[in-house]
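Supplementary Methods, section 5.1.

A reviewer requested that the exact input to the structure prediction be made available. We therefore reproduce it here, unchanged from the version used in the analyses.
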Amino acid sequence: MATGHHALFSNTGGTQNTANGVQALFSNINGSFNTATGDSALFSNTSGDDNTAIGHGALFNNFTGSGNIVLGSFAGANVETANNVICIGHVEGENVSDTCYIDNIFGATSPRGLRVFVNSGGKLGTATSSQRFKEELSQ
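The structure derived from this sequence is encoded token-by-token as follows.
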């Protein structure tokens, strides 16, 4: 399903795609099960599958990456071939599979919950933990 000028313009073999916006999924040839909402969302995708891009220019440079989820204007702009990348907010991410980037949380604090670390590029993760290195654990 395509709504917008030149949405799914190059599609020849891809199936089950949804493109909403001017030039959304413009370059898609045979990628399937993609959802692009926003002008130029998933613009460069040619054969990536199962991507969700919401926002103007979201996943703009993705060519073959699959399973990516981005939300925000130009979110995931640096993702080209990586798989399973999540970008939330105006964060461009990196072309590295199995990563997560969330904007506006670097330096923010929270008084309770699991310790989570975020680097200056917005990459989110947790520290590794091993019981054998800890002292005074009650069992």
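The mean pLDDT is 90. These observations are discussed further in the main text.
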